[in-house]
Design goal:
Layout: H1 2-17, E1 41-44, E2 48-52, E3 63-72, E4 86-90, E5 96-106, E6 111-121, E7 138-141, E8 145-149, E9 160-170, E10 178-180, E11 186-190, E12 199-209, E13 214-224, E14 243-245, E15 266-267, E16 272-279, E17 285-292, E18 296-302, E19 309-315, E20 321-325, E21 332-335, E22 340-350, E23 352-362, E24 377-386, H2 400-406, E25 408-412, E26 419-423, H3 425-431, H4 436-443, H5 447-463, E27 468-479, E28 482-483, H6 493-496, H7 499-503, E29 512-517, E30 536-537, H8 542-545, H9 572-581, E31 600-605, E32 612-613, H10 614-624, E33 643-646, E34 648-651, H11 656-667, E35 671-675, E36 686-687, E37 695-700, E38 718-721, E39 738-744, E40 751-758, H12 760-777, H13 783-791, E41 796-797, E42 812-813, H14 815-823, E43 832-835, E44 849-854, E45 872-875, E46 884-888, E47 893-896
C-alpha cells in the first residue's frame, strides 16, 4: 500500500513540474483590472461635475469598457457619455450626498468596481422680492364698477401669498370710490354716482411673498364726470382692399369658421393684412393659403408680446416646412424663397394675443424679426446670460431638470457673463418625446431644419426659466467681401475721401485699431511694421479654426479655404488691415489710411473656415474694448483700443448679448465701425449692422453712387469707398475695386501680394482708419464726440438728398474734414431729435416707441412731455428722466424711450 502511494505521488510531481517529453504549456490565469473612480469631490449646486475613471488600468491587458451609474443620493438624471471613461452632470440644487459606481471590463471580460462620493452644497441666496402688477390704467364713467386685477403679480423664487389694495391718491375733492375685495388679487372699485369734476383715483397694490418680502405697484382710474349719453353716430365704414379677418377669432358676436388645419386653410389675396387671434388653450392654430412671389415677406405682428408667444411657419401645400420664425419676445417674419402657392401657419406656443399677419411685403423693406430656421447659426449651441446675482459671487442657477432634459453642457463663458452651452439634439428630442406636436413638427422638416428647430425650442424653454435674462442662438458671421484675380491697380478710393490732404497734416499722437476678422498675415511686408505686439485668436471651435486648437494668443491667419492647396484662402483680415494702416514710402505695394501716423493694427482672429460665431466675435470685441472675456489674465490688453473694425456680419436681428457688448465698448471709449452688408437689402436685417452704439458703413463706387451690393436703410450712419469690380469708370484697364494687401496659399505655401476686393467690408476700414487719424490728431475725442460731429456734417461730404438719407447716412466720409474737426472741435449746440415722426398703433397695438436723442453737445435735459388731446395724459415713470408713458381713453399705452433703456418698448 505504501509503495503504491509513493509511486502515485511521484507521478503527480512529475506531471505538475512538466517533466517528461511532449507536454503543452500551462495557461496563465487572467488578472482582473483595477477600477479607479477618482477622488471624492465637494461641489456647489449648479456646478458642472466631471467623474474621471481614465486612471483605471489592467496589468495584463487593456480596459475595453466603462459603465457609470449612480447608486446613492438624489438622482441627477442621465449621465452624459455614461459609457465613457469620463462622464459629466450638473449638480442638483440643494445639499446632497451622491455616490457613483464605476465598473470597468478588460479584454478577457473580467471586471472591477470602484465608487466616488460627491458632496453638493447649496448656495446661500437671499430671497427675491415679488413683483407687483396692478394692471393697465383704466378709464371709466361715474357710477361704474371698475375691476382691479393684480393676478399678473409674480414671485420669481417663491409664491405671492397676500394681496392688499388701497386708495393711494385722488386729484380732486370728489368722494372716494367704494372698494370691495381689498385683500384679494381681484378687487372692485365702485365710482361715485354723481361727480362734478373728472378725477384720477390712484390705487396701490401691495403683494407679499411666502417669505414676507413685499412690493407695490399703482394703477390710475380716470373717472369721467357727467358722461355724454344718448348720442348717435351715422355713416359708413369702408374696409380697405386686402384686409381680412381670421375666421375663428372667438368673437362672440360672429359665427366662427374653421381654419385650424391645412385642409381648411383660409385663402388670402396678395397683398393682404389679416387681423387674427390665437390662444394656446383652444385656438392654437390658424392656417392661411396665398400665392406668393420670390423675395416677398410675411410678417406676424403680435399685439401682446409680453403675454403670448406666437410663431410663424411657411409650408408647402403638402405640409413640408419651408421656413419658420420662432422667437420668444418679438414679432416674427419669413421671406419667400421661390414663387408658388404656400400655406402660412400661425401657432400659439403659449398665451393668447390678437395679431396682424401682413402678407406680400417687400422683404428688403422689412426689418428682421424673430429667429428663423433659415438663419445661419450653429445648431445645438445657445448663448445664455443669467439675471444679476442676488449677492456678489452668487449666480442664479438654471433649473436642473430643464438642463438634463435639454442635455445642456457648458462650453465657454464665465459666471455673470454671456455663456455658451451645447444642447444635445437627442436629449432635446427626449424632452419632447411625449409631445405629439413636436413629433408632427419634425416629420415635416429636413434633418438640418430639425436640429435648428430643436435649438430654437430649447431657447424658448430657457427663456422661460426665472434665472435667465436672455437666451439666443449662436449666429454664424462671415466676412463681407468679394475677391478678384487681378493683381495690381491704383488706389482711387483714397483721393475720393480727401486723404492726400489729411496726410499733409501733422499728428501728435497715435491710435490702436483692432481688426476683428480672419486674423492677419503677420509677416506681410507691408504690414509687419504696422502691427501691435498684442493680438489674439478667439476661435473656440476646432472644426473651423484651421489650426485644430482652441483660443490662444496667435492671431496669424492660417487661411480659411475649405479646399486647401486647391482654392485660395480669402485672407480677408489682411486686406482690411492693409486699408487701415499698410506701410507707405517703402517702395512696395500700396498705402493705408493711417500710414502717416504711428497708429498700430491690433489683429484679432474670430473668423475661420466657413466664417465664425456670434460668441467668438463678441469675445474678440470684449477683449479689444476692455471687457471681461475668455482670454487668460496674461493675455489681456493693458488698455482698450481706440477703434474696432468689424467687416463681417450675418442675417438676423441684433441680439441682446450683442447689444450689451457693443454698448459697453462705446462706454469704454471705443468707436465700433461695422459693415452694412452686401445683400443689396435693408441693413435692419443684418447684425451687427442693425445694432445701436456702432457706426454702420455703406459702400459707394468710383462715381460715388451706392454700390449695387450695398445694404441701405435707417441703420446706415456713413458711406465710404467699397468699390465695384463690374466697372472700370476710371478707364485704367482694372476693375474699380479696393486695392490692398493680400496673400495666396496655393498650392502649398503663402506668398504675399496685393489685389482688388469690393464690398462693405472694404468700405468699413476706410472709416475706421479716418477715425484713427482723428484720434491721432486729438486723443481726447470720445465716441460721442465723433458721432456728434458725424451727425452734424463735420466729417462728411453730402452726396445724396440734403441731410440724412438711407443710402449714405450722413454722407461720404472725408479724411481731410475729419482731421480738421478733430484738431479744432466745433461747438455743437444741443439738438433734440426724435424718431419716428408719427406713431402708428394700427388697430391692435397698445404700445409704441419714440426715440429721443441729443445729436449735439451735452447739456440737453428733457424735463417733461405735454399733450394737446383731452383723452391723453402724460406721466413720468421712476427712471432717468428720458422716458414717459402716455395713457389714452382706449386703454392704449405709449412708451417714449431712449433706445435700449426701457423694458416696456414696442
Amino acid at each position: 500500500m505504501n509503495l503504491i502511494l509513493l509511486l502515485a505521488t511521484m507521478l503527480l510531481m512529475l506531471s505538475a513540474c512538466g517533466g517528461g517529453g511532449g507536454g503543452g504549456s500551462t495557461p496563465v490565469a487572467n488578472i482582473i483590472p483595477n477600477a479607479v473612480a477618482g477622488g471624492d469631490q465637494q461641489v456647489t449646486e449648479g456646478d458642472s461635475v466631471t467623474l474621471d475613471g481614465t486612471a483605471s488600468s489592467d496589468p495584463d491587458g487593456n480596459i475595453t469598457g466603462y459603465v457609470w451609474q449612480q447608486i446613492a443620493g438624489t438622482s441627477v438624471g442621465s449621465l452624459n457619455d455614461a459609457g465613457e471613461g469620463k462622464v459629466s452632470f450638473t449638480a442638483p440644487n440643494g445639499d446632497h450626498d451622491l455616490t457613483f459606481q464605476l465598473t470597468v471590463t478588460d479584454n478577457d471580460t473580467a471586471n472591477d468596481t470602484d465608487t466616488v462620493n460627491v458632496a453638493v452644497s447649496a448656495q446661500s441666496v437671499s430671497n427675491l422680492a415679488p413683483t407687483a402688477n396692478a394692471g393697465d390704467d383704466i378709464f371709466a364713467d361715474e357710477g361704474d364698477v371698475v375691476s382691479l386685477d393684480g393676478r399678473a403679480s409674480s414671485d420669481s423664487d417663491g409664491t405671492v401669498d397676500h394681496y392688499q389694495w388701497s386708495l393711494f391718491n385722488k386729484d380732486t375733492g370728489e368722494s372716494d370710490p367704494v372698494l370691495a375685495g381689498a385683500s384679494s388679487a381681484e378687487a372692485t372699485a365702485t365710482l361715485p354716482a354723481s361727480m362734478t369734476t373728472d378725477t384720477v383715483y390712484t390705487y396701490k397694490l401691495t403683494v407679499t411673498d411666502n417669505l414676507g418680502a413685499t412690493n407695490s405697484d399703482y394703477v390710475d382710474i380716470t373717472a369721467n364726470a357727467n358722461p355724454v349719453t344718448g348720442q348717435t353716430v351715422s355713416g359708413s365704414i369702408a374696409i380697405p382692399p386686402g384686409n381680412r379677418v381670421d375666421l375663428d377669432t372667438l368673437d362672440p358676436n360672429t359665427t366662427p369658421g374653421n381654419n385650424d388645419s391645412i385642409g381648411f386653410a383660409q385663402s388670402m389675396p396678395n397683398p393682404a393684412v389679416v387681423g387674427g387671434y390665437s390662444r394656446n388653450s383652444d385656438d392654437e392654430y390658424d392656417y392661411y393659403s396665398a400665392t406668393l412671389s420670390a423675395g416677398e415677406a410675411i410678417s406676424l405682428l403680435i399685439g401682446r408680446k409680453s403675454e403670448a408667444d406666437l410663431d410663424l411657419y411657411l409650408k408647402t401645400l403638402g405640409g413640408t416646412t419651408v421656413d419658420a420664425s420662432l422667437s420668444y419676445d418679438s414679432d416674427e417674419s419669413v421671406t419667400v424663397p421661390s414663387s408658388g402657392t404656400y400655406i402660412i401657419e400661425v401657432h400659439a406656443w403659449s398665451g393668447a394675443s390678437a395679431y396682424h399677419l401682413v402678407i406680400g411685403e417687400n422683404a428688403t423693406a422689412v426689418a428682421s424679426n424673430g429667429y428663423r430656421l433659415s438663419d445661419d447659426f450653429v445648431a445645438d449651441e445657445v448663448l445664455v446670460r443669467h439675471k444679476p446675482a442676488v449677492k456678489a459671487g452668487v449666480e442664479l442657477q438654471l433649473d436642473n431638470t430643464l438642463m438634463t432634459n435639454l442635455g445642456m453642457v457648458k462650453q465657454a463663458g464665465q459666471a455673470g457673463d454671456i455663456q455658451l452651452y451645447r444642447v444635445k439634439p437627442q436629449k432635446n428630442l427626449q424632452a419632447f418625446a411625449d409631445s405629439q406636436l413636436f413629433s408632427s413638427r419634425v416629420r415635416t422638416m429636413s434633418s438640418s431644419q430639425q436640429q435648428k428647430y430643436e435649438t430654437l425650442t430649447s431657447i424658448k424653454l430657457l427663456a422661460s426659466d426665472p434665472s435667465v435674462a436672455f437666451a439666443e442662438p449662436n449666429r454664424i458671421l462671415k466676412p463681407l467681401a468679394t475677391p478678384n484675380d487681378t493683381d495690381y491697380g491704383l488706389q482711387w478710393h483714397y483721393p475720393q475721401i480727401g486723404l492726400p490732404a489729411a496726410w499733409d497734416e501733422t499728428y501728435a499722437s497715435s491710435a490702436k485699431i483692432a481688426v476683428i476678422d480672419t486674423g492677419v498675415l503677420l509677416s506681410h511686408p507691408d504690414l509687419t511694421n504696422q502691427l501691435s505686439a498684442d493680438g489674439y485668436d478667439f476661435i473656440s471651435s476646432t472644426s473651423i479654426s484651421a489650426y485644430g486648437d482652441g483660443i490662444d494668443n496667435n492671431p496669424d491667419d492660417p487661411g480659411d479655404s475649405s479646399n486647401p492647396g486647391v482654392s485660395n484662402s480669402s485672407f480677408h483680415g489682411t486686406h482690411v488691415a492693409g486699408t487701415v494702416a499698410a506701410e507707405s514710402n517703402n517702395s512696395i505695394g500700396g498705402a493705408g489710411v493711417t500710414w502717416k501716423t504711428s497708429s498700430q493694427i491690433v489683429p484679432v482672429r474670430v473668423l475661420g473656415v466657413g466664417g465664425g460665431t456670434t460668441y467668438d466675435v463678441l469675445q474678440g470685441v470684449k477683449w479689444a474694448s476692455g471687457q471681461v472675456n475668455d482670454a487668460p489674465a496674461p493675455d489681456q490688453l493693458a488698455a482698450p483700443v481706440d477703434v474696432i473694425n468689424l467687416s463681417l456680419g450675418g442675417s438676423g436681428s441684433c441680439g441682446v448679448s450683442e447689444q450689451a457688448v457693443y454698448s459697453a465698448a462705446k462706454a469704454n471709449g471705443v468707436t465700433v465701425v461695422v459693415a452694412a452688408g452686401n445683400s443689396g437689402g435693408n441693413a435692419a436685417n443684418f447684425s451687427p449692422a442693425n445694432c445701436d452704439d456702432v457706426l454702420t458703413v455703406s459702400a459707394v463706387g468710383y462715381d460715388k453712387s451706392l454700390a449695387y451690393y450695398s445694404n441701405f436703410g435707417l441703420d446706415i450712419d456713413v458711406a465710404a469707398p467699397g468699390g465695384n469690380m463690374s466697372q472700370d469708370l476710371d478707364g485704367n484697364g482694372d476693375p474699380d475695386g479696393v486695392y490692398s494687401t493680400l496673400g495666396d496659399d496655393t498650392p502649398t505655401y503663402v506668398t504675399y501680394n496685393y489685389d482688388y476686393y469690393h464690398g462693405t467690408s472694404m468700405a468699413t476700414p476706410h472709416v475706421a482708419g479716418v477715425i484713427g487719424l482723428m484720434k491721432s490728431a486729438n486723443n481726447t475725442l470720445t465716441p460721442d464726440d465723433i458721432e456728434a460731429m458725424l451727425i452734424n456734417g463735420y466729417l462728411t461730404e453730402d452726396i445724396g438728398p440734403t441731410g440724412f438719407d438711407t443710402s449714405f447716412g450722413h454722407g461720404l466720409i472725408r479724411a481731410d474734414l475729419a482731421v480738421t474737426a478733430a484738431k479744432n472741435p466745433p461747438v455743437i449746440p444741443p439738438n433734440l431729435a426724435v424718431y419716428p415722426g408719427v406713431l402708428d398703433f394700427g388697430s391692435i397695438f397698445t404700445l409704441a416707441t419714440l426715440t429721443a436723442s441729443n445729436t449735439g453737445a451735452s447739456g440737453l435735459n428733457i424735463i417733461g412731455v405735454s399733450d394737446n388731446q383731452s383723452w391723453l395724459t402724460v406721466t413720468e415713470p421712476e427712471n432717468n428722466g428720458w422716458a414717459w408713458h402716455l395713457h389714452g381713453s382706449c386703454r392704449q399705452k405709449w412708451s417714449f424711450c431712449r433706445h435700449s433703456q426701457c423694458d416696456d418698448q414696442f
